[in-house]
Specification:
The chain contains ten helices and nine strands. The longest helix is centred in the N-terminal third of the chain and has 14 residues, at about 50-65. The strands form two sheets. Strands 5-4-3-6-7-9-8 form a seven-stranded mixed β-sheet, with helices on both faces. Strands 1-2 form a two-stranded antiparallel sheet. It has helices at about 5-15, 25-35, 40-45, 50-65, 70-75, 100-110, 125-135, 145-160, 220-225, 245-255; strands at about 75-80, 85, 115-120, 140-145, 165-170, 180-185, 230-240, 260-265, 270-280. By secondary structure, the protein is of the alpha/beta class. Strand 6 (about 180-185), helix 9 and strand 7 (about 230-240) form a beta-alpha-beta unit.
Length: about 280
C-alpha cells in the first residue's frame, strides 16, 4: 500500500530535524512540488495516497536534502520580494535579510527619476531585477565575476521582463570607462574563510566564492568601499549588506573614503546587517 500524505510528511520531517531549522516546512515544500500542488492541498487531503512515482520522487528529494542540498536548489526556485526567481548551485540562495537592502535602496530612488544604479556581485540577479521592477525609470546594471551567475541572472531578468545590463566583471573592473552612478548596492561575500559558520546547515552546498572573500571576511567590502568614490556621482549613495559583527569596520571604511550620514539598519533577526553612506564629494 502506498504512503499517505500525512505519513510521508511525518517521515521526512523526522529525518530533516538533523539538517534543517524548518523540517516540517521543508517536507511540505518538497512534497507539494512532487504533487504539483500548493501546500494547502497537503492540509486539505492529508490521507490521500501518493502514487508510486510521486513517492519515489519524494524519497529521492529527501535523500538529496540530507546531503545537504538547499530546498531552493531542489525546487529550482526561491521567492524574493514577492517574485519567484530561478535558483541553481551556480549562485547563493537569496536570503530574506537581503530584502532589507532592497527596501533601503528603494527609499533612496524617487519613482520619477531615471537614476543610474549598479549592483555589484549580482548572483541570481534578485537585487538588480527587483530595483528595476519597483523603479522602472531607473537605469540598472549589474556585475558578477562568474559567467554561470550571469546566465542565471539574465534568465531571471527575462522571466520578469526587467531591462538590466549584466556585465562580467570582478567588481568595478570592467565597468564602462567614465561610468558614474547615483546608487551602488552590493551583497558581497563577507564570511571569514575559517569561520565555523561555513560548515553549518546548507552552506557547504552553496558556492564558496559567494560566501567568503578571504581570511578576514572584509576583503570584498574593502574593495567595494575604497573604489566607490570613483564611480559615484555627487551625492551618490552606497548600500552594503555585511556580517552582523562587521558594522564597526564597515563604518570606519566608509568614513575613510569620505562618506557621511552613515547608518546601519538591523534585519528581521535584530542583527546589524545593512549599512548606508552618502558621498558628497566624489573623486
Amino acid at each position: 500500500m502506498s504512503e499517505q500524505i500525512d505519513t510521508a510528511l511525518g517521515w521526512a520531517s523526522g529525518r530533516f530535524e538533523a539538517c534543517s531549522e524548518s523540517p516540517r516546512l521543508d517536507a511540505e515544500l518538497l512534497l507539494a512540488h512532487c504533487l504539483e500542488k500548493p501546500r494547502s492541498f497537503l492540509y486539505t487531503w492529508p490521507q490521500q495516497a501518493l502514487s508510486e512515482d510521486c513517492w519515489r520522487q519524494f524519497q529521492d528529494l529527501v535523500k538529496r536534502r540530507l546531503q545537504p542540498t538547499p530546498v531552493a536548489y531542489l525546487l529550482g526556485t526561491r521567492e524574493f520580494f514577492s517574485l519567484e526567481y530561478a535558483t541553481t548551485p551556480a549562485a547563493l540562495v537569496p536570503r530574506p535579510e537581503t530584502e532589507l537592502l532592497v527596501e533601503l535602496a528603494l527609499e533612496q530612488i524617487p519613482g520619477d527619476a531615471p537614476l543610474r544604479i549598479c549592483d555589484l556581485g549580482t548572483g541570481t540577479g534578485v537585487i538588480a531585477i527587483t530595483l528595476k521592477k519597483q523603479r522602472p525609470l531607473a537605469i540598472v546594471c549589474a556585475t558578477d565575476v562568474d559567467s554561470g551567475c550571469l546566465a542565471l541572472a539574465r534568465e531571471n531578468a527575462a522571466r520578469h521582463q526587467a531591462e538590466v545590463d549584466f556585465i562580467e566583471s570582478d567588481w568595478y573592473q570592467k565597468l564602462p570607462a567614465g561610468a558614474r552612478f547615483d546608487l551602488i548596492v552590493s551583497n558581497p561575500p563577507y564570511v571569514a574563510a575559517e569561520h565555523p559558520f561555513l560548515a553549518q546547515g546548507d552552506l557547504p552546498a552553496e558556492p564558496a566564492l559567494a560566501l567568503t572573500p578571504g581570511s578576514s571576511g572584509l576583503e570584498a567590502l574593502e574593495v567595494i568601499i575604497s573604489r566607490a568614490p570613483d564611480f559615484l556621482n555627487p551625492g551618490g549613495i552606497l548600500i552594503l549588506e555585511h556580517g552582523y559583527d562587521q558594522q564597526a569596520p564597515v563604518a570606519r571604511l566608509l568614513q575613510e573614503q569620505g562618506f557621511d550620514q552613515i547608518r546601519c539598519e538591523f534585519d528581521h533577526n535584530d542583527l546589524p546587517r545593512t549599512s548606508i553612506g552618502h558621498l558628497s564629494q566624489p573623486r
